[in-house]
Amino acid sequence: MMSNIATIEGVRAAEKVVREHLSPIPLIRSYRLEKELGLPPSRRVWLKDYGWTPVGSFKVMGAINWVANHLDRIGDRPIAAHSSGNFASGIAFAGNRFGKRVIIVMPDNAPQVKFDLTRSFGAEILTYDIATDHVTGLRDQMVREIVDQKRGIQASPYDDNDVIQGNGVGGLEIGEQLRRQDRAISQFVCQVSGGGLMAGHAIAIASEFPHSQIIGVEPETAADFRQSLAAGKIVRIEQPTGICDGLLSYDVGLHNWPILKRHVSSSVVVPDPDTRQAMKWLFHHHGLRTEPSGAITTAALLTGKVVPSGDADIVVVVSGRNVDNDAFAAWITL
To answer: Is the pTM higher than 0.85?
Structure first.
């Protein structure tokens, strides 16, 4: 186990940093999901919808905190990172706020909206063939070349304490908003990929609501964390696949694993057709045009993969909304 892991104190420090650049993200009550799940009037379901951020996903919180804590080290050197798209726009936004050059390595099949968002904040983009990357390792090689040839400073999209603690600010927001209404959480349902989103939120949720059940959700064809929990060690998937492009990391990060192992009680898997149904459901009942990675948690509830338990509220993370129009239309046509 790593001796240096993210902490609730680090999350609280990150909140001061993030708040200089972002307003709190809304926590929206889903009356329709309460009805769908057959909950009693005493229980509520809340959607933590990170589509409201300036980059359309949660990634901007960790990115801001990372840049703010590495300013001296960065200096006039470029920030280098790889990303399926949401961290790309998050670190581009953060770089723009702090006046830093950002160079991102992205898969060639990333949604156009993610390319456009990332470029809108001034970042430079290089692409690689994701279909063969598990064999060539080109993604990591390209990032190393930016570091070596352009003196870049590498930022991890998830495997870094500053990123984890920045993401955890969202968990503090959940706690603050619910406490104002004298509410508590029985179940917290959140995506797991590299683990940066869940690790940060798990630290905050476990601190604010120590009796809550923290549940991970993964695509059926990219369920490395579920396998890791069963094995008691990090399991790597060589070629994760599926429509949830934001949840296809090869494994969880070394900084994330001890936090996930400590706080996350279980992880459920969702097949792509169920995620598509949830995208359609969120669009028709809430007007939310979510990306697959954002809708997968709602799918876990709608399909009974996560069964309501306890007597307090349920919080569901909608991690992002960055999806191309044509792809979205095709996915919700069932």
So the answer is: yes
